[in-house]
């Protein structure tokens, strides 16, 4: 259950602050804060945001719906483009809570902070970015007992972390709000502000409540959703019509006759005017085609101005959609859509990867399925379902080593490097070792009947890490001699149940865990157990997990010797910058850039070092080089 405490602090500032808290559905809430020096802008934008969120955001696909809602809101903001002074002083945040995850987007100095169960204060808004519209979406988890604090100012520029920590230490939402309010009244006095505290407290419903309270709450939750409300509204509307029907049956029959007559008259007149309108419509459509092209050109000239870029892109998309519905100039429209796609990728930090003779490391004689690409002693190897190709050195031939003892119906599904060997997981739940002398052997596990039927195998410090059958638990196998000990659970049962399904893990001292909903957490076992929610900042619009297929499951990559975190998602490699160089202190990941396979499908990749990525595809192995300058990625 999500407790909320909303406080307005009036310092007689010149800004007007608006706030809204709307329940969209069961376990789906929206919180909005807007601060502006223009009262009209605050009111209109507040209503626009709520209307867009109510209309667009549904429980089935919250991230995509939220992105669509923000596009609608940004279109409205762009209409104020001529009033730059008003936009300049606009600070706003839209925050969505969905079960245990949250998403938000902010403008200028509006901020969001997470107070976790370890008493850490984490600023989840990106301090370096101050967008003029809702350009980026950030995503994370809030666990039981944790707080979210929202404000129209950057609180940590006014208060110290200890001030916030002291204010929240009472673990009571109302008392915490009062404490922070009192501290702010002593420390801050130049702008009106709203302070919203949200507390995830799953035990609140049942502690100290009678059975009747619990029954009423449970009954209320059954009907407290969007579909139930729409259904009851329809029933009430139908009831009103039925009450009137007995008294006005004759009037309804006459009205129906008039409507039918008008319909037939309209049909006949339309047939006469259709020929004339077709000619005029074609000329108007030609003019719209020219307008769409002009909008795309204007957008390309304003890549550094998000407001003007979005305004022109939306205009072009609207015109193209209308022309497609009319089925006119379809060839010209296809060219415009291609130009539009290239421009949007450029704006969202997407670079195409093209195969060239210079970046081709190795070409397979015929297409081969890819399981994994790895590196042993700075030499690249590619794992296939039944064999391994390597070492791969540019300009040289490579051997393919087939595992003859592998059962006919078995095949490799994942691999990792352990010291100088490649350890491989098979579909049948067996583990195979490929040694540097190019020999295969099966690996035994002691004190348990078989290995886990895991789709993932990873290694760190000589140990193997796998998933349980449920895909929600991480098991560590410690090496003893030539075999490995039985798996030891790394997550607590409560955390495993909360995570539900793990797509991928990456180890850099802690363990990054990519969950099925696209959120990321990080597990630490030393010096004490903790599971840290990792906030993903400035996510691109194509960061979507709702339509992920099992054979193309995303995977995350990190190592102790890498500065960045990488992810493979739908034929794209995404790069994130951790909030700290120390793996123990990482609280968030900032999206920097992505590369997309243009003429090649990226089956897997290996990061040799920050700046050098080896890409494995069915037709060969390719090398991608890049550099990062001021958080901007440039292909070399």
Short recap of the structure:
By secondary structure, the protein is of the alpha+beta class.
Secondary structure elements and their pairing?
Blueprint (H helix, E strand, L loop, with lengths): L1 E8 L6 E10 L2 E9 L2 H18 L5 H17 L5 H5 L2 E8 L2 E7 L3 E5 L5 E3 L13 E5 L5 E5 L9 H8 L4 H15 L5 E8 L10 H13 L2 H20 L3 H52 L5 H21 L3 H18 L2 E4 L6 E4 L8 E5 L2 E5 L3 E6 L6 E4 L9 E7 L2 E6 L4 E4 L5 E3 L14 E4 L2 E5 L6 E4 L1 E2 L2 E2 L3 E2 L3 H7 L2 E6 L3 E5 L4 E5 L5 E10 L15 E3 L7 E4 L3 E7 L9 E10 L6 E6 L2 E6 L2 E10 L2 E4 L1
Parallel strand pairs: 11-34, 30-34
Antiparallel strand pairs: 1-10, 2-3, 3-4, 4-5, 5-8, 6-7, 6-9, 8-30, 9-10, 12-37, 13-14, 14-15, 15-16, 17-18, 18-19, 19-20, 21-22, 22-23, 23-26, 24-25, 27-28, 28-29, 29-30, 31-32, 32-33, 33-34, 35-36, 36-37, 37-38
Helix pairs in contact: 1-2, 2-9, 4-5, 8-9, 8-10, 9-10
């Amino acid at each position: 259950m999500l407790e909320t405490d909303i406080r307005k602090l009036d310092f007689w500032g010149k800004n007007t602050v608006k706030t809204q808290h709307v329940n969209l559905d069961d376990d789906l809430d929206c919180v909005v804060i807007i601060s502006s020096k223009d009262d009209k802008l605050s009111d209109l934008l507040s209503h626009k945001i709520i209307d867009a969120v109510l209309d667009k955001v549904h429980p089935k696909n919250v991230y995509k719906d939220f992105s669509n809602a923000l596009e609608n809101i940004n279109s409205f903001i762009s209409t104020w483009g001529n009033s730059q002074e008003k936009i300049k002083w606009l600070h706003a945040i839209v925050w969505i809570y969905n079960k245990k995850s949250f998403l938000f987007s902010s403008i200028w100095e509006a901020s969001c902070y997470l107070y976790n169960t370890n008493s850490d204060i984490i600023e989840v808004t990106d301090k370096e970015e101050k967008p003029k519209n809702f350009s980026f979406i950030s995503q994370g988890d809030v666990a039981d007992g944790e707080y979210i604090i929202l404000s129209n100012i950057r609180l940590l520029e006014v208060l110290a972390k200890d001030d916030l920590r002291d204010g929240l230490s009472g673990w009571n939402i109302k008392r915490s709000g009062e404490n922070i309010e009192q501290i702010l009244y002593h420390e801050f006095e130049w702008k009106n502000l709203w302070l919203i505290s949200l507390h995830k407290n799953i035990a609140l419903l049942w502690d100290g409540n009678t059975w009747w309270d619990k029954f009423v709450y449970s009954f209320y939750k059954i009907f407290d959703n969007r579909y139930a409300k729409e259904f009851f509204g329809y029933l009430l509307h139908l009831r009103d019509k039925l009450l009137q029907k007995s008294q006005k049956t004759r009037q309804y029959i006459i009205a129906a006759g008039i409507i039918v007559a008008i319909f037939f008259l309209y049909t006949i007149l339309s047939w006469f005017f259709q020929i004339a309108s077709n000619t005029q419509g074609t000329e108007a459509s030609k003019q719209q085609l020219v307008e769409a092209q002009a909008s795309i050109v204007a957008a390309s000239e304003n890549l550094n101005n998000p407001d003007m870029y979005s305004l022109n892109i939306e205009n072009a998309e609207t015109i193209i959609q209308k022309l497609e519905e009319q089925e006119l100039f379809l060839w010209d429209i296809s060219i415009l859509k291609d130009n539009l796609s290239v421009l949007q990728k450029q704006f969202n930090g997407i670079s195409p990867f093209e195969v060239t003779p210079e970046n081709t490391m190795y070409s397979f004689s015929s297409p081969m399925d890819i399981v994994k690409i790895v590196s042993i002693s700075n030499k690249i190897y590619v794992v296939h379902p039944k064999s391994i190709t390597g070492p791969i050195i540019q300009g040289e031939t490579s051997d393919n080593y087939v595992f003859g003892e592998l059962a006919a119906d078995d095949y490799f599904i994942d691999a990792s490097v352990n010291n100088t060997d490649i350890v491989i997981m098979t579909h049948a739940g067996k583990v195979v070792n490929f040694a540097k002398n190019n020999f295969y052997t099966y690996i035994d596990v002691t004190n348990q009947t078989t290995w886990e039927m895991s789709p993932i195998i990873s290694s760190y410090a000589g140990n193997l890490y796998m998933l349980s059958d449920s895909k929600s638990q991480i098991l560590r196998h410690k090496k003893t001699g030539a075999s490995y000990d039985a798996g030891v659970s790394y997550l607590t049962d409560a955390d495993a149940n909360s995570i539900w399904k793990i797509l991928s893990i990456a180890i850099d001292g802690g363990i990054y865990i990519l969950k099925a909903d696209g959120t990321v957490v990080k597990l630490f076992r030393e010096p004490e157990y903790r599971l840290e929610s990792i906030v993903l900042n400035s996510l691109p619009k194509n960061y979507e997990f709702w339509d992920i297929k099992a054979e193309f499951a995303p995977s995350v990559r990190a190592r102790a010797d890498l500065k960045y975190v990488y992810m493979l998602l739908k034929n794209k490699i995404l790069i994130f910058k951790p909030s700290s160089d120390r793996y123990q202190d990482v609280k968030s990941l900032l999206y920097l850039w992505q590369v997309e396979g243009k003429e090649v499908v990226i089956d897997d990749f290996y990061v040799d070092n920050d700046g050098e990525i080896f890409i494995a595809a069915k037709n060969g192995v390719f090398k991608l080089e890049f550099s990062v300058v001021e958080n901007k990625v440039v292909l070399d």
